[in-house]
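Can you give me the bound-state structure? Components:
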Amino acid sequence: MNSIEIKNIYKSYKDAKALENISFEVKKGEIFGLIGPDGAGKTTLFRILTTLLLKDSGSASVEGFDVEKDYKAIRNIIGYMPGRFSLYQDLTVEENLKFFATIFDTSIEDNYELIKDIYVQIEPFRKRKAGQLSGGMKQKLALCCALIHQPKVLFLDEPTTGVDPVSRHEFWEMLKKLKDKGITIMVSTPYMDEASLCDRIALIQSGRIMRIDTLDNIVSAFPGNLYAVKSGNMIALNFDLKDFSGISSSYIFGEYIHISLKKDNDENMIMEFLKMKGHSDIEISKLQPGIEDCFMELMNNPENR
Amino acid sequence: MKKFTGFFIKECLHLIRDYRTMMILIGMPVIQIILFGFAIRNELNSVNIGILDKSKDEITTELTSKILSSEYFILKEYFTDERQIDTSFKKGHIKEVIIFESGFAEKLKKEGRAEVQIITDASEPNMANLALSYTTSIIQNYSMTLSKGKDQPLIISPEIKMLYNEELKSVFMFVPGIMATLLMLISAMMTSITITKEKEFGTMEVLLASPLKPYQIIFGKVAPYLLLSLVNLALILWISTSVFGMPVRGSYLLLIAECSLFITTALSLGILISTVTSSMQVAMMISLVGLMMPTVLLSGFIFPIENMPWPLQWISHILPAKWFVIIIKNIMLKGTGFSYVYKETAVLVLMTVFLLGLSIKKFKTRL
Amino acid sequence: MNEDIIITEDLTKKFGSFIACDKISFSVKKGEIFGFLGANGAGKTTAIRMLCGLILPTSGKATIGGFDIYKDTEKIKLNIGYMSQKFSLYEDLTVKENIQFYGGIYRLSPKDIKERSKQLIGELGLESSENSLIKSLPLGWRQKLAFSIAIQHEPKIVFLDEPTSGVDPVTRRQFWDLIYKAAGRGISVFVTTHYMDEAEYCGRVSMMVAGKIEAMGTPKELKSRFNSGSMYEVFLHLARGAK
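Here's the bound-state model for the whole set.
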């Protein structure tokens, strides 16, 4: 059973195409990740699904309701957290939460069970104004506000952008608990490492979806051979590798440089090349690709240009 | 209803938290009305006048010295010929001229009445009016002392002539005018800003994605400002009656009802502005330039509508403030009842209904 | 090459009773890429503002490029570059106009500005869009341009506050190539980021927790000290420890 169904959606603004032929489904109770950089079209897609924006063509439904015809019904059953922090900065934590409860005709008490795990973390600050909370706290409060009416589907547009790794980690823990309660969650993020926390992901770039699948399937579909290279002088290594004709791509990755070799090349050739360039302490090892490797490979694929 | 209360409370919290704006909103009317009030009253300090005494007897001399010793007037020119008067006025040397007819004392004794002519420069209507009333009261006082112990009162009758603006229509306009301006400013500008603020801060996105209906959002946002405007109204009325002696000859109830109507009109205008703009800055500019300026300039508060060229007169008809000022003047100054202002009231009601309907219709349910 | 561009000693900033920065001491060498990490609210922004001469410290000492942060704030501002994720370029000006504007701010001569803008546009491959408005450019391009503009007056050090937030992975790496080039020219780079892989690209990293610098060293040192496989684990370890 699908919670969200999207078919052939197109959307363009005055002079720019924002979304091109987007189609996918999100199953009930699934955490679905929309992964891509800023400007990829994630927010546009969220706004169409939350009935805030009209698409140019195609069709979309949330929990069986059409996003245009039945927009009122959808607004009752979704929770939405826009990319920008959109709570009232001059109201306290408690006041914000109360306000959002009343506009959905409900109360904090009625829904305490659902938000309890999250709310206890910000409860010590309930008298503090939302504008004075730290980034991670703001996100937790916004999540509470989006959950206060027990939505069936949760739309989270870049909830972790600009949030430090620890708070991000905590945020995802909360999402997992919500998933266990049967809430469908569609979440977007520019952080590739968060892909592993989603059930399925869509990689989106320049308004087009490059791939939709589980993380494992995407990773195992990576073409070519990926190696991690390291040497005593990483800065020089980075520039030298770019000059080597035997590799199709080379990107720094933490303390290594990931390169993917063209056919008929092997590690020994790189080793020779680097030695010739005067590198020492060279390490080369075969590597399992990660989501970021896949994303960059797909980005460079002419099909996705 | 619960949604409305929730919204209302939230909106009040915003207002209270932003106490600076709140202070301005409450302080501004007070300061403005006091400034206007005193600016108009205090003008009468040492007004330059001219005197043409065609009689030069003991009574005119005594009356002249009474007038000059009153501290309100300074004798700038002592004319000998009526022809000098006009040029002196035009050069702006004097604001008022007092002319005693020839044979003044003799006429007063024989006929029991004599005439004094007072000419004022009414291009500054407020000043002219005040100077005039001061002069006449001095003259009347004097004639009363003269009449004491006599069987028949001696009458010095002032013949008044206003130059340049003969009807002096705008003098009592200032209180109704300020009321219109301030209520317009607070109601229209503040509501347009408060709604666009939600758009600018991105909170509108969440409100729109919720089951709130447009009218719930609008009324929830506007209600606190209606209250605030009523508080302001009370302040303005209190100051203008107690400090400046502005009369309220008609019914207070009717006055407040009409004011509430005007506030609602202004609020609807504010909502309409906010539905077509998306930034606070633009909303503020539109409110200031599009509403405040015409209200101040074209509602007949500073410049009489009758003297305007017809396109401006026509524009003044679509200004709610024009109708409101007429209503208020009728109630406060003339003491008339509803039957005299029902037409103007009807115009305001129609405007309000139209504006409210339009803004609810225009209010976007999407981004 | 061993000249210290930033030296701080017990730098402290209090807001009322709240201590945003608590006795932070570190130094950044010429041409070094220094990663300044920490959780949200740990005091990074306050520290950067002090170092840029935007706010005065409560106590402690610091010099930037040899200038004292209490007395020579104006000189400091001429010798640093600054770029952040939130504010970088004027969206309603074109690429060229932004370059000219910032060149003017740093008192470059019109001739210099002309030369540099040509060179800069060439380096970034922006020739075809030099007259387009910034808002029409993709975020990644904007950030690369903003960085290049921030260093066009050859500052001694450039402060980058989450410069790559939200940028796609390929452009993010191109951005780091620019950083490496700048560092190679001798410009020190002071950078904050939430991408932990980027922490590995820094020469040295400091980790700020609740106003204090809890750890500092090369990524390698930190990983072995905390027995972690990645900087992410180091970060979790330190930030969690504080809670």
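A couple of observations. The interface with chain A takes residues 2-3, 5-7, 9-10, 13-14, 17-18, 201-203, 205-212, 365-367 of chain B (CB under 8 Å). Residues 198 and 206 of chain B are 10 Å apart (CA to CA).
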